[in-house]
Amino acid sequence: MRGIQLSIKNKLIIYFLISILLPTTIISIIFYTRSSEIITDKINLSIVKNLSSVESILLQKLDSINDFSVLMALNPELQHIISSPQPDNADGIIDEIVKLDRILDSYYLSDFSALTKTALYPKLFVVNRPQYKNVNITDKVFDISAVENQKWYSQLPNQLTIVGTDHITMFGKKIQTMKIAKKLVALRAADMAPYAALLTTDIDANFFVDLLKNYKITPGSSISLLNADGDVLLSSDLSPDGPHSVKDSEVIRKLVKDMHDQAEQSHMDHIDGKPMLISTNYIVPLKWTILSLTPLNEVNIEQKKLNQIMVFVIVICMLFALLTALVLSGNISKPILALVKSMSTIEHGNFDIKLRYRKKDEFGILFEQYKQMMEKIKDLVERLYVSEVSKKEAELQAKDAELKALQAQINPHFLYNALDSINLYAMRYNVPNISDMVSSLSNFFRYGLSKGKSIITLNDEKKHVESYLEIQKMRFGGKLNYTLDFPNDILQCLTVKLILQPLVENSIIHGIQKVEGEGWIRLSVVKQGEKLQISISDNGAGANVEEMHEMLDFESHTSKSFGTRNVNERIKRLFGMKYGVRFYINEGGGLTSVVEIPILWTMEGYHVEDGIS
Q1: Which residue has the higher pLDDT, 121 or 391?
Q2: What pTM was computed for the model?
Q3: Which residues form the HAMP domain (predicted)?
Q4: What's the CATH number where 194 sits?
Q5: 355 with 375: CB under 8 angstroms?
């Protein structure tokens, strides 16, 4: 393919634009990249400080809760109950539960939560109190069996332990909480401080969520708490489409693990196709990870504004360069464009040159020489055209005379009259075979000529091939048998004439003549959707189907394939490439030719050139 040829004017415009845009773009890219790095580093430093602050507050909070748990564990009345054996009667059990419930309420109602600045919901699970299960008067005191089957219970150490997130119902409202558990020992028991109860404290999760929200660096960022397994416990972003939506993603877990392994606190990566600044802070005592996800598009908001200003400056420079190029290139490119425009009209045979250039410079000389050259070309073309027209007219007249002579030789009326006369003589002298053959021959030519029409009914095509088969049967005798199966409801469909006889002739010459014994030919028509499939089957010698299909596809063929190729080409030329002739090998031997044509009752929409009737 030839390369794109630019005009002088376009070249000048491009040169000016490149000379301004190239250095401006390079400087802008360098400035933008460096400033983005500086801004990102500062944001990253701020995020790391925020995550450290979150860690500090969390640890302080947990220390306060630990103090709360210790004070409750040292309560004399609580110690007396958990150090004593289970009462023998139901009244004693109920009295014990009521006392424990009142103790837990006293800590909650005395606003002990002021130490932690958030609501605390304590629950007590007492060891060796199976009768507690039969009493349902409180939601704070239970038998230890209520939690023994929990997965986290079997993994509890003796010190204060964070179980994870949970939900409790208070005043008919479901509240998300962070559950913390501590094992209590019976200090007044006879044994050496045996395990006597489990104290759990539920903390309103909104405290942690608000804490995480306060330390978000941008509106679209999120801060999440991850446990040791990489699962998200709480997140500052509670919307379903926020960054926490990837909390179960293996991508996040792998990123956090890789950052821990490489001792990295910040990392750039893509999450859900969005560029993110990922920062982490590992809390050693808790084995938690504080994860911060910050979209880079929010980090670089100020940089984007600066970038917009740069783009505006580049556009102004481009417009200035364009205006300068237009002014400087106008005097040079205008004459050349006029010459090119004049040359383009010559492609359409217009040799009348209308060019006006009054300046006496190199373009003036070029235009004058161009006009003289076009006048000479115009004169030569006119001479050549007259010569070619005369030659064509002579050839057409010769062909027309030859065609008329040929038509006179095969005048249909003369041919029919001659055949009728032969038929009368055969009947007069009692020679029925000659009469039948002449009748079939007469019908063959009558339907074949079809008054010069190229489109006939399927019924006429059937009669034509039937006449041909009858003539051939007289020739071959008992060696040739045939059947025709044409449904009556499709006999008036239109088709191209002379599409069956050449295929039947191939079946006889190349199939049946080459085998011993009786031969048969079957013609049948079936409907397939909007198409007619006309099958010509024989039990002859068969053929190579691939070679026959190649014969139809190539442009040059031997004379032996002319008839079949002509049928295929006429069908495709008139009805389209999806119609035509195909060949198939019969299972019992022989060949089947299938002709596909559309089901048409009128030729409206098709261009048909009929001969003279």
Answers
A1: 121
A2: 0.43
A3: 330-382
A4: 3.30.450.20
A5: no
